[in-house]
Design goal:
It is a single chain. It contains 4 helices and 12 strands, in the order αββββαβββββββαβα. The chain is α/β, with parallel strands linked by helices and 211 residues long. It has one domain: Metallo-beta-lactamase, Chain A, CATH 3.60.15.10. It is globular and about 45 Å long.
Length: 211
């Protein structure tokens, strides 16, 4: 069921960007360097204000007059003129009939994404299918309490988890399907995704890789 949902309703846009189609709506996560601007956004989830996650150029090209942008309070000042829902970790909200929870997203052994910035990942409920978009994060203690069906996890290392650390995160979260992301654009390549998949398969964790 979850694999079919990924195939039919979710598109990887490269890096950390995704488009989820739900109830006739287009829901984007961290759109960056989009190749196709024909799909206009109903909701855009932004995990943090780094240029490759909060890309004003891409947002401008997919936003409509009534587009709602969900963004951490730390960073939302860049989005003047848009309808913005500001969030902090642990906030639970509903936007256009879609419920979601903002969850912590930060580094533990590097300084690019400090915990005190209160940047986020999201667990979004798409009609009973919960997708966790981790944002830019390391393997953090809070993950053991996250409940989701599909986990989108960064695997490139450098700014985020390595493939091995993402595997540890997947073991802690226990999603129905784990999906590697954050490679092929700025850092990391397909080999990071392949390493993550290989580790998960040995542990019996189902994975899905977008082409």
């Amino acid at each position: 069921m979850f694999r079919d949902f990924l195939k039919e309703n979710v598109k990887w846009l490269g890096h950390d960007g995704f488009l989820v189609k739900h109830n006739g709506m287009n829901v984007f996560f961290d759109p960056y360097k989009l190749k196709d601007y024909s799909k206009k956004a109903d909701i855009i989830f932004i995990t943090h204000p780094h240029y490759d996650h909060l890309s004003l150029e891409d947002i401008e090209k997919i936003a409509k007059e009534d587009t709602v942008i969900v963004c951490p309070e730390n960073g939302a000042d860049q989005l003047k003129g848009y309808k913005v829902v500001k969030v902090n970790p642990s906030d639970e909200r509903e936007v256009m009939g879609i419920g979601f929870k903002a969850v912590p997203s930060y580094n533990v052994n590097k300084k690019f994404h400090p915990k005190e910035n209160e940047w986020v990942g999201y667990i979004v409920d798409f009609g009973g299918i919960k997708i966790y978009h981790a944002g830019d994060t390391d393997f953090i203690p809070e993950m053991k309490d996250f409940k989701c069906n599909i986990a989108l996890l960064p695997v490139s290392g450098t700014y985020v988890m390595t493939a091995e650390e993402a595997f540890e995160a997947a073991k802690a979260i226990k999603p129905d399907i784990a999906v590697p992301m954050h490679y092929g654009a700025i850092v990391g390549d397909k080999s990071d995704a392949e390493k993550f998949v290989s580790l998960c398969e040995k542990e019996g964790i189902e994975t899905f890789v977008f082409e």
